[in-house]
Design a protein that fits this description.
single chain; 383 residues; alpha+beta; Peroxisomal Thiolase, Chain A, domain 1; 3 domains; nine-stranded mixed sheet; two-stranded antiparallel ribbon; 15 strands
């Protein structure tokens, strides 16, 4: 009988471009729409709870880093920038929803920023917030099966360039609706006050650290509800009245500009009705299938686009008889912003390098993706 290897996260690292940016400084970097301060910014920030974020931009709005450059810096940080140690990597698996180009893939562009590495397999899953977890799962399975002994997986985003004022069309502010219904804030302009840039990386191995802690990866599971749900968040397309998406390739160059086809958009009503509810279904099943009890979870790391969802996730957990109290939650949305595919990596990185760890502790990861309602979950054990 063949046996599988244990898989451990033996190091984590993060990279943020430039200095953190406060709420008051945001429009200095992103620019003003129609030369006027945003009317909805204050309300959206109040709901999302974000206090600062990072942009790969200068104050003049010029790019300072590519996504691939930031990701490569996070990978180097895993090895304290030791070029020789980078040669030990046998697989590079990179997830993002904001690659610098449509082709080549994000992963090979990161590899191109790391000439000191060897010629190895590189994987680059497409997607949105779950892309980082898909990259993690591929690397996990490669080490698990013995395909490789060491792998690096990354989650990163560079959203800021697409949040600049010149990218946005002239839209009437729905201030009254925003006050009455916070979900309205998840329309296109909401994303300007939520998204952040950065990159993070995990080093996976089939051997745990001899000194210090490691995180053993117990399992990684995912689910998509695209078979029953239409698209909720989309980019490079336009939503038709019947719910289908019309590709950017089917618009004229003028239409691509006038209709903001390359901007990220969100179907607010779909999001509000389904994102938390659907995420709870699979999680409840996993508690039962894996024989887990809520009280056995020491740290809960839920990726949230906004603090607005925190209480709703908590209520759903209680409703599903899998309550996890707030004192077990590790969330850094307020200090880092929403970094999409990288957000869960940043939470794991913060915990890995904290003084909170004890052997045997269980860490539960939850990553929702609203694009067409996909979810990823993982369980780690401190060893």
């Amino acid at each position: 009988m063949s046996s599988f290897n244990e898989v451990y996260i033996i190091n984590t690292a993060s990279y943020f471009p430039n200095d953190p940016i406060s709420n008051d400084e945001m429009e200095a970097y992103l620019g003003f729409i129609n030369q006027n301060p945003s009317k909805s910014k204050r309300i959206v920030l109040r709901n999302n709870g974000i206090k600062r974020r990072f942009y790969a931009l200068s104050k003049e709005g010029k790019p300072t880093h590519t996504n691939a450059e930031m990701t490569a810096k996070a990978v180097r940080a895993l090895f304290n920038n030791d070029k020789e140690k980078l040669k030990s990597i046998e697989l590079l698996s990179c997830g993002t929803s904001s690659p610098d180009q449509m082709m080549p893939s994000h992963g090979v562009m990161v590899h191109g920023e790391l000439p000191e590495m060897r010629s190895i397999e590189v994987v680059s899953p497409a997607g949105v917030c779950c892309a980082g977890m898909h990259a993690f799962k591929y690397a996990y399975m490669a080490v698990k099966t013995g395909d490789v002994h060491t792998a690096v997986t990354t989650g990163s985003e560079r959203f800021s360039a697409s949040l600049r004022s010149e990218v946005f069309e002239d839209e009437a502010q729905k201030l009254k609706q925003l006050e009455d219904n916070p979900y309205i804030g998840f329309e296109k302009e909401f994303l300007r006050w939520m998204l952040s840039d950065g990159a993070s990386a995990f080093l996976l191995s089939d051997k745990k650290n001899e000194n210090g802690f490691s995180f053993r990866v117990e399992w990684i599971e995912g689910v998509s509800y695209a078979n029953e749900m239409e698209a909720c968040m989309y980019m490079g397309s336009e939503k038709e009245p019947d719910g289908t998406l019309k590709s950017y390739m089917d618009f004229s160059p003028d239409e691509i500009l006038s209709k903001s086809i390359l901007s990220i958009k969100q179907d607010v009503k779909l999001l509000g009705e389904n994102i938390v509810r659907l995420g709870g279904i699979k999680l409840k099943e996993l508690f039962k299938e894996k024989g887990m009890k809520p009280e056995e979870i020491d740290y809960f790391l839920p990726h949230m686009s906004s603090d607005f969802f925190k209480a709703k996730i908590y209520e759903q957990l209680k409703k599903n008889d899998t309550p996890i109290e707030y004192d077990k939650w590790v969330v850094n949305l307020d200090s880092l912003g929403n970094v999409g595919a990288g957000s869960v990596y940043f939470m794991v990185d913060e915990l890995f390098h904290s003084d909170k760890l004890k052997k045997g502790q269980k860490i539960l990861l939850l990553v929702p993706e609203s694009s067409r309602f996909s979810y990823m979950y993982a369980l780690l054990t401190v060893v």
